[in-house]
Fold:
Amino acid sequence: MAGPVIGDDGVARCPWGAGDPVNLAYHDTEWGMPVDGEAAHLERLTLEAFQSGLSWLTILNKRPAFREVFAGFDADVVAGFDEADTERLMAEPRIVRNRRKIDAAVANARATVALREQGGLVDFLWSFRPDETPAPRDTAEMATTSAESIALSRALKKIGFAHVGPTTMYALMEAIGIVDDHLVGCHRRGSSGVWASAQ
Structure:
C-alpha cells in the first residue's frame, strides 16, 4: 500500500500518477474529471474496455490512434462498422488488436445509438452515481468494484453493451468523476466539482 507521493515539483499525487510524464499529465488534467457529450463518454467506456489486462499507459499512448480509427468515437459512424472495418482494425498496429474488444466497441456504439431513446448514454451512466464517494487514504483502501459498478455493468449488458464488467465500469466511474478516487492528500482530490466535500 502507498499514500500520496510528493513529486520533484513538491506536489502530492496518487502514486500511479507520480511517475511517467504521460500518466502524470493524465492524472493532473483528466482523471476524475467529468467529460462532456456522448462521444466523450463512449470514448472513455471504449478505452477502459480495451485497457482490460493491459496498463493504462499503453492505452494513453495509443489514444490518438484509437480516436482516429474509431472516428472520434462518433457512435453513429462506429455503429455502421462492418466486417471489413473489423479486419481493417485488426490490421492496425497502432491500436490494441483484439477482435473481442473491437467487436465490443462496435456493439457498444450500436447500443449507445439505441440508448438515445431512453435519455442517452451520459444520463444513463451518471444515474449510477453513489450517494457518497470513497475517500481512500492509501492504495490499499482503493476499491476495484462497488455496488454501483456491479449494477451499472448488469444494466449495460441488459441493453446490449459488451465488455463492461464491474471492474471496468468502476474504472470508468473513477475516470469521469462519478466517484472521486484521488487519495486523500492528493492535490487533485475534489477538483472535479462533483463532490464538493470530497476533501
Q: What stands out?
A: Residues 82 and 106 are 9 Å apart (CA to CA). The first strand starts at residue 5 and ends at 6.
